[in-house]
Structure formats: C-alpha cells, structure tokens
Amino acid sequence: MKILRPKPFYFDSGSSAVLLLHSFSGTSNDMRLLGRFLERNGYTAYAPMLVGHGTSEPLDILQEGSPQAWWQQTKSAIDFLKQENKTKIYVFGLSLGAIFATQAIEELDDVVCGGVFGSPLYNKEFNNIRNAFMTYAKKVYSVQQGLTDIEIDSKLRIVDSKIDSFLMEIRKASVNVTDNLAEIKRPYFIGQGTSDKLVDPNAATEVAKDVKTSQLHLYNAGHVLTINNAHNQLQSDVLNFLENN
Predict the structure, then answer these.
(1) Catalytic annotation, pick one of 16, 25, 28, 95
(2) Distance between CA atoms of residues 223 and 195, nearest Å
(3) Looking at the domain assignment, is residue 4 inside a domain?
(4) How far apart are CA 163 and CA 159, in angstroms?
(5) How many helices and strands (H and E) does the chain possess?
C-alpha cells in the first residue's frame, strides 16, 4: 500500500492571509479543514510543513528540526505572504505551533493578530507530550514502515535517547515566549479543549490573565481542536475573531 505523504498547502483566496502552524507530531494536514473553511470565507490560508515533519521517519523531527529552525520558518512564511501582497496577515498555531504563533504576535510588526489552539505555554512538564511522541513513533514504525518488533524496539531506543534533550529545547523556547505574554497588545485568540490530555487545560486561563487583549474559548474536547469534535465551533469562532480584527 502506498502511503501519500502530507504536504504543505497554500489556498489563495483574498488579500487577508492566515498562517497556520501545526503541532509537534502533526503535519499541515491537521490544519487543512480550517484552511479550507477560511478559503471558503475569503481568506488565504497557508500551512507550511515544519522542518523534519511529514516524513515516515519520526527521528527526522528530532534530528532535522529545532525551535530555531521552526522560528525561522515562521518568519519566512510571513515574508512569503508579504511577497504575495497580502495586506493583512494573521498567525495561529496548534500545540507546538502555538509557541511560534505567539512569538510572531509578540515580535513581528507585519502580524495583525492571531492565536493558539492547545497551547503548551505555562505547562510545567512535557511528560504527556513525550509519551504521545513515543506512541506516534511506534505507530509509524509498525504501520507505515512495517518493521519487525525487534526493529521497532531498536528504533524506539534511539528516539528515547534523543527526545528529552529535544523537549528541553522546546520548553526553553516556550518559557522565553511566556515571559513576554504581558507585552502583547494585539487581539489574541486562545482555544483550549477542557479534556486535553497533552497540555494542562488550566494553563490557558493563566495565559489569558497575562494577555489583557485575549479572548479565551473553551471547548468540551481533547487536544487537536482543528480536527476533533470541536472543529466546527472552533472554525466559527476563529472566523468571528478575524472578521472583528
């Protein structure tokens, strides 16, 4: 069976553009439903693939990706949208992508505003994210690559040896962004699932306290709000946010 690799997308549909940044073990596919919804409503939607993602080798994320590389990609994506003559640029990020979406809102003048879904900001520990990545890696090795149990175990030992230091780098990036939350003066959308098992749902409330311009939206749902049972309501709320900013 041939497995089609996920690809970045650019849905050109108007002078206002929304940059969509995906999660740590996700791809641009997690943003596709929201992207198509925005396109139908007259917004251009752009979801790049973060370095190391979208392959059938989870180690690519840990070996090729980095917070520095992903931040550079975020800035390059915004430059691309400027070159495409987009007059308004918004940035939203899911989970890992939330870190760089927030940094863009904090630092880049070209960004009108934006927000986050399932943000890891203010999370005290990343154990759940670690466990989820190990589960994701095991699934890829068994289902996509069809490796034997011995081969899977060998691969997972390599992932296990690298992931803690890598998550520490992500945590550092997260803390740096969190430290500047109070400086945000632009509208800031916060979407959080109340039954999120990957990040602490209560952390969203802490972020909302820091960002005086924030709009907190809680959903009776899990982590990946862009594709789970909350996605229709999320899409509606994001559109309303865009229309008013």
Answers:
(1) 95
(2) 7
(3) no
(4) 6
(5) 8, 7
Question: Which contacts of 152-155 are long-range, i.e. CB under 8 A and separated by 24 or more positions?
Answer: 155/59
Res 4: pLDDT: 64
Which one from 22, 53, 217, 223 is the annotated catalytic residue?
A: 223
Between helix 127-139 and helix 149-178 the angle, nearest 10°, is 150
pLDDT beneath 50: ranges in the chain: 1-2
Find where tokens 């699934």 sit: 139
Dist. CA 130–CA 160, nearest whole Å? 9
Quote the pLDDT of residue 99.
Answer: 98
Range of the domain at 47: 9-243
Cross-strand pairs, 111: 89
Cα–Cα distance, 42 to 77 (Å, whole number): 19
Interatomic CA distance for residues 147 and 203, integer angstroms: 38
- How many C-beta atoms lie closer than 10 Å to residue 17's C-beta? 28
Identified catalytic residue from 30, 196, 200, 237: 196
95 in active site:
yes
Domain count, the chain: 1
Task: Name residues whose C-beta falls within 8 Å of residue 1's C-beta, 6 or more positions apart in sequence.
Answer: none
Structure tokens at 54: 């979208």
CATH classification of the domain holding 63:
3.40.50.1820
Identify whether 223 is a catalytic site residue.
Answer: yes
